[in-house]
């Protein structure tokens, strides 16, 4: 970050650390799920809830938190979020049973929702033009890295300490960030903007009820009132949330953004691609331990090739997308990833990581590296700078909701048990989602918005 001024470097460091802990905790848990299930019980249903309790509150409240950040001050909201996240992490680590663990995970997600939009808002409030773009690029790189290295860190803690220590990884970066925040002297001017609490409640309750129905449905069936009643109520409440966004004077989700072609289609592609990534991350982390018998660290290392390729290729893909437009890369990247997902069908009872999993991870990593930076550039580049913060928050919310819904449906996807047949079913669904992401990008994303603007001027 040598090209940034000292204040800008401090802001970027704070923003990266705040978001890093949030995204890390979303993926670090995957390799800990078998250990959690062995100690606390509950099987695949508990495993789903451990992941989705966090994603429900994070996804549902991230847009509300953006408004709260504007209304009450970004530094204050971030400080509250960091402290709350730390306390919730301690509660997760000390949980004596699945219920307490799930409640604490939901509180973690709520605290995490305060961190992501306020961190981006700090960047957009203190930087402009190309400096802001580069800062967002740094932020995106580190948050993506957090999602990819999470399984490896989780595996090390599970194998050499305990699954409980997985949730204490964040204590040190949280403490460091609180110190950095105390050094950040920014003139805060809370906007006094009205916070639409009702919309936040409708979104959270709607998503929560739908996810409850999806997770519990394999156990009870759609005919059970315990399933169809909350499922129906959840759909109605979420529909009311969307309707309220059209009439609200201070919407959490400005529907006008979706009239911008690249933003709308880019978020639809995000929905499919990140659903596939969440599904793949869950089944890889769990099956390689429960099915293939690998230790947690080895299961975490399975996705390391994707991280390495992201580091080596992602920045170049961003530069190529700036030159040739994002459409080609947003199409080719998911399709290459789909090939990698299909290659996981070679996994057999006679398990061999080097021949059955590693090649698939390399191909998926290459596709992911070609996808992430162009996808981010297409979505944020389609929206003017004044709305870049909310545009990024919306895209993050879409990615989290994608993961939330697909994890809720895992029991249905794998047939109730994550055995070899279930693993193969998940690989097929992952590939199908990625193909949809590539097709949507090809249909919806313009080849190069800059070229089209130049052509219009001529």
UniProtKB/TrEMBL annotation:
All residue ranges annotated as the Major facilitator superfamily (MFS) profile domain in the record: 11-449
Pfam families: MFS_1
InterPro entries in alphabetical order: MFS (IPR011701), MFS_dom (IPR020846), MFS_trans_sf (IPR036259)
Single GO molecular function: transmembrane transporter activity
Membrane-crossing residue ranges in chain numbering: 12-37, 49-69, 76-96, 102-123, 135-157, 163-183, 195-215, 227-243, 264-288, 294-315, 327-347, 353-380, 401-420, 426-445
Bilayer topology term: Multi-pass membrane protein
Signal peptide: none
Cellular component, GO annotation: plasma membrane
Intracellular or extracellular location(s): Cell membrane
Keywords noted in UniProt: Membrane, Transmembrane, Transmembrane helix
PANTHER family in the record: EXPORT PROTEIN, MAJOR FACILITATOR SUPERFAMILY MULTIDRUG TRANSPORTER MFSC
Protein name: Antiseptic resistance protein
């Amino acid at each position: 970050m040598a090209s940034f001024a000292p204040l800008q470097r401090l802001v970027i460091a704070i923003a990266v650390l705040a978001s890093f802990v949030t995204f890390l905790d979303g993926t670090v848990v995957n390799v800990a799920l078998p250990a959690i299930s062995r100690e606390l019980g509950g099987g695949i249903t508990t495993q789903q809830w451990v992941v989705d309790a966090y994603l429900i509150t994070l996804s549902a409240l991230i847009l509300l938190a953006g408004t709260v950040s504007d209304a009450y001050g970004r530094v204050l909201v971030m400080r509250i979020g960091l402290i709350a996240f730390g306390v919730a992490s301690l509660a997760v680590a000390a949980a004596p049973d699945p219920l307490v663990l799930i409640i604490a995970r939901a509180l973690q997600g709520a605290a995490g929702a305060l961190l992501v939009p306020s961190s981006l808002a700090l960047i957009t409030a203190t930087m402009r033009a190309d400096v802001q773009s580069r800062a967002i690029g740094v932020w995106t790189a580190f948050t993506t890295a957090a999602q990819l290295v999470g399984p490896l860190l989780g595996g090390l803690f599970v194998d050499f300490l305990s699954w409980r220590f997985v949730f204490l990884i964040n204590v040190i970066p949280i403490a460091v960030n609180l110190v950095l925040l105390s050094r950040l002297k920014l003139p805060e001017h809370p906007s006094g903007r009205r916070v639409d609490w009702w919309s936040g409640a409708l979104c959270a309750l709607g998503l929560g009820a739908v996810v409850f129905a999806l997770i519990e449905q394999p156990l009870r069936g759609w005919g059970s009132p315990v399933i169809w009643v909350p499922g129906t109520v959840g759909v109605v409440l979420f529909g009311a949330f969307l309707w309220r966004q059209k009439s609200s004077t201070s919407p959490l989700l400005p529907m006008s953004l979706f009239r911008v072609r690249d933003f709308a289609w880019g978020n639809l592609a995000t929905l499919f691609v990140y659903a596939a990534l969440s599904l793949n991350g869950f089944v890889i982390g769990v099956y390689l331990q429960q099915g293939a018998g690998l230790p947690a660290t080895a299961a975490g290392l399975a996705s390391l090739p994707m991280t390495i390729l992201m580091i080596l290729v992602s920045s170049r893909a961003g530069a190529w997308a700036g030159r040739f437009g994002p459409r080609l890369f947003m199409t080719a990247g998911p399709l290459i990833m789909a090939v990698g997902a299909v290659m996981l069908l070679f996994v057999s009872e006679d398990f061999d990581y080097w021949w059955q999993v590693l090649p698939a991870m390399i191909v998926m990593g290459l596709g992911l590296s070609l996808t992430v930076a162009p996808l981010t550039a297409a979505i944020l580049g389609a929206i003017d700078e004044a709305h870049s913060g909310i545009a990024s928050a919306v895209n993050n919310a879409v990615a989290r909701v994608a993961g939330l819904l697909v994890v809720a449906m895992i029991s249905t996807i794998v047939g109730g048990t994550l055995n070899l047949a279930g693993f193969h079913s998940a690989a097929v669904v992952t590939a199908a989602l990625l193909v949809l992401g590539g097709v949507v990008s090809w249909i919806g994303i313009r080849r190069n918005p800059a070229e089209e603007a130049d052509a219009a001027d001529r």
